[in-house]
Structures are given as structure tokens and as C-alpha cells.
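fwd from M.: "can u put these together and see what the complex looks like"

so here's what she sent:
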Amino acid sequence: MENIAKLEALLFFYGEPVDMSVIARILGITLEECEKEVSHYEQILSSSNGRGLLILRKGNSIQLATKPELKEIGEAIVKDEFRESLTPAALETLALVAYLSPVTRATIDYIRGVNSSYSMRNLSLRGLVERGEEKGASFRYSPTQEFLKHIGVQHVKMLPEYERYHSLLQTFARTMEEVSVSEHEEKNPETPFDEVPKEKAE
Amino acid sequence: MENIAKLEALLFFYGEPVDMSVIARILGITLEECEKEVSHYEQILSSSNGRGLLILRKGNSIQLATKPELKEIGEAIVKDEFRESLTPAALETLALVAYLSPVTRATIDYIRGVNSSYSMRNLSLRGLVERGEEKGASFRYSPTQEFLKHIGVQHVKMLPEYERYHSLLQTFARTMEEVSVSEHEEKNPETPFDEVPKEKAE
Amino acid sequence: MYELKLDQYQGPLDKLLELIESKKMEIGTIALASVTADFLHYLEGFKIDLGIDEDSLSEHAQYDAPLELLADFLVVASRLLLIKSKTLLPSLELTPDEQAEIQDLEVRLKLYQEFKRTQEHVRACWSDMPKMYTREFMLSAQVLFYPPSSIGPNELLGAILKISGALESAMTPKVRVKNQILNLRTKIEEVIAKLTNIPQNLRALHGEGNRTELVVLFLAILHLIKQQIVKVEQVDHFSEIMIAKMDALKVE
């Protein structure tokens, strides 16, 4: 059996997102070989109209999912159980988490100008955002695979104008420092700029 | 998208054996066309060393499964997943199930503030918790006898400071039920299709 | 239920942006000054809109979150008030802190305006039903007994203690709202004190209408503070909520 068959079996069996290093270990290959194998598999899946699956990516984890073009197949099976509608506050918070992840609640609060604890908790309960690593005393939030499944993209980076918005906050943070508002803001727990999200965390 | 892609997506997601007539209905084709499509797919899967899956037939039902030659992949991942001690998220979930049992996943989610479906499924597969009676649309979970025996406790009531924390957490859970989070929590999360994401990253 | 209700409301920046955009103005001091009255007018409607009624304040769920939201609005309102005062009274001296606050509001509003586009993007992609479906975790695995290596009753209790601790701290009374309201009151007192200390400058006002407007703004805020904001204290989650009106303002 080829490695690609093993990869397929593994992803199918596991179901949940699985870390690339775990895949490499189980298949007995190096991380580089693994990444190559995954890219190859991804390529096969996406290039063929005869395949119904694709690879969802989040950070170093991957997961198999059905293609968004086939959403009516899933809908025919699940009916309304997975329905998730968004209120304006939930949408606002979720959009910021998606574009800025990993991001602290303080940053979200700062941009929205309101306390987002309820919205964040609600999204977290619904499995649309999740808490990741701790940054100092606060957690950093990211969108989940469930979010990707609802919007039908394989990776948050494929959201429209992702790069622009992802880097926008840092530009603003620098501007803020230049106008030296930071001194004033330091007393204020709302200020998020000591913890601007970094690309490398993705 | 070709019918074969739809078939693949359906079988992948459905999980359980599914009757040929159901497949035909969802794909919007006749039973004969469906049988032809399935045979074709079956042929593709079994003839290639690059595919890790096969079709299992039982009467008129079919199911997608990993190839028997790749059995060790499944075993390796099970070992990998369960060899480790519990993640903080899983331990938290297990402790809440123990101190609140029998308890619904919605209550656990609410207390933890995150979606616990992945942790709960993990604990179930490890034989540490089990589903009991239904409460409304959702199941109630308890620790397994085997687990209690393993930690040397005959009954949950013999857990340290059981009374105190059992009532404290119950009071909290009840307060929240009154505030009534959202109708979202009431939907049945326990179908075979349940795969609301997890707080794995924690 | 209040939580669901809260979700339907616009935040202060969102409201402010809407007001400015409805006047087709660019974000800046002039625009902010020109929408101050509208913003405060919107704020005045809060009590009715959110159903905060002193008779129902004993119902925890009825007022808690809206009060939080109101506090966020008041922060913005206090800054607008500064901007408006400065526009009407150019000779009014602002402290460096106050200058910074005004600048901060502008910058944040611009930031908010930028990021509002992300909502449109996500809304455009979003579908209530998922577009993709995945398999359940280890759907075909057999349930066996795999106990974790080291676990006992004490580990379970340890986890429970951690959760209980987190719950307790999540329920400690929120002093933030109270502080913000007190800060705002101080700010208004300061501005009014400045006005009365420099009576000669009042004549420098551009016109009667403007002066009236300024007075109306202060009155609106004072009214809001006296009539609608109450001091809220709660010792812990399950105790009774103590409510007391704030002391009458010394100014006026």
C-alpha cells in the first residue's frame, strides 16, 4: 500500500483534525515527506470532479471534509441540526476572530468598543471559536473547523482580503505608538497593542 | 460534480451502513444507476494501491471503511490518542461528569464555557464515561463503573468533597438553565452526525 | 435572555459610525462634534429600549448586560462631550490626557470602520447550514477501556476546584461599570468648572444657538446620570443585588 492510501485511511478513520507530526509518526516518514504526501493528496482531491472530498487546514492540522459544492448532500442527511445563524454582535466578533486569529479578547473589545465576553462565550459554546494558547494572562482565540465548514473555505487565509486585514492591526498599532497615545493607554486594560497577533502563529 | 463524487461525500459523512434506495434518492438517480455508480466506485477503490478505503456490503446497505491491510494504521492512531494522559480539557470534562452525573453535555458545555463534544467523545471511546438515559432531546452522561473501580471509588458520592461541589455546580447549572442560554443547546447533539468541534487546542 | 437581547444591539462605535456616515462626513473632529447631540439622543432612549426599569432591577438578568453596554456607550459619550465643548469654546483648555482621548476616539473609529468590512466578507461567505461536512471522531473505533496513566479521586477534585474557582471569579461583581460612570461624572464636573471659571470666554461663543446646544448636551448627560444610572453592587452571584442611587451631583 502506498503512503497516500495510508494517509487516506488515517484521515478517514480519525475524523477530527490531526497534526502533521502525528501523521508523519504513524506513517513512519519525515515531516517533509509527510507534507509532500499531503499536498499531493490535496491536489488529487481538488483537481478531480470525481472526488467528493477535500482537505481542511488549520495551522498544522488537517482534516477530511466534503466539498462545499456538495453541501446539499450533507443537508439532505442532517436537516436542521447544524443550523447556526449569526446575530449582528456574533457576526462582528466572529469576523474579527477569523481575520485576526490568534487574537485576544482585549483586542476584539478594543476594536468593537464594547465588552465582547458574552459574544465570545456564545461563539465558543457553539464551537465556532476556540481558545488557544495563553498570552500572558489572556487567551488567544481562533476560528474552528466548524466555522470553516459553514463558510465553505479550506483555510481562513482564503477569506476575501485576508492578508490586508490580518496585517492592518499592526499598522494601526504602530500609528498609535507614533502619536504616543500609548502612554495614556497603558493604564487602560482595553489596549491590545502589547499583543498584536503575529503571522508566525498560524 | 459527478455522481461518484456525490456518492463519496455521502458515504464519507453518513458513516453508518446506508441503504441503496436512500443513496439513489439523495443523489436523485434510479436504483439501477445507483447500483452502477456504486460498482464503479467499488472497483476504483479496490483496484488502486493509492486508495485506503473500500466498500463494505451488507444486504442492500453499503458503508465506506478502511482497507483491512491498513488495520495497523487505525491501531496506531488509537494507541497514539489514548496512550497519553488526559488533556486538561478532557480531565475537566471527566471531573464534571463525575461530580454532576448524570449530566447532559449541554450543562458541561455551559459550565466550561466551551463546546465539549470532542472531549466527551474521547472519554467515551476510552471507556471512562457512558451515555445513560435521555433527558429531553439529549443524553445524560455518567462515569463508567470500570473507571470508578480503577480510581478506587465505589460510587461517585464517595468522591472527595462530593456533596459540596455537587450542589455548588448544580446550583450554578440551574441558574444558567433559567437564564436559558439559547435554543441552540436544546437541539439533539447525539446523532451519529454529531461532530460539532472540540476544544482540542486547549 | 438578556444575553440574546444584548446581541441585537449596536456597539457605541458602530452607532457613531452610522451617524457620521448618514451625514456623509469623513471621520474627524468636526464630524464627531456634529453627531454628538444625535449620539446622546440615542443614549437617552436606552432606558426604554432595554427595559431597564428600576422596579425590575431586582431581576439580575434584566439589567446586567445592558448596563455593561451602557457603560461602553458612556465612555464614548464623555469623549464626544469633550470634542463638542472644544468646538463650541475654542479657548477651552484641554489637558494632554483629554487631547489624547479625543485622538484615540478618532483613531478607533477609523479602525472600526476598516474592520467593518470583514463582517461583510464573512456574512457573504456564511451559510446557516454548513457547506462542508466531516466524519465523527473515530467513528469506527471500538470502545475499550484505556484509563489514563495517573488519575485518582484527587486529580478529579483538583480539576473541580479549578473550575469552581473560575466560576467564582467570573461572578465577582463588575466594578468596571461603576467606575466608568464615576469617571464620567468627574469629567463633566471638570468641564463645567472650566466653563464657570472663564466667564469672559462665554461671550466668545459663536452664537446663542451654539451655547444653548452646549447646555442641552450637559443637561442630557446629567439627566442620564441622575435618572438612569444607579450604583450597583452585588457581593456574590447568589446574593441579593443592592441598588443605590448615586449622590446628587454637586454641580448645576
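replying to her w this: The beta strands of chain A are 18-19, 53-58, 61-66, 103-104, 129-135, 138-143.
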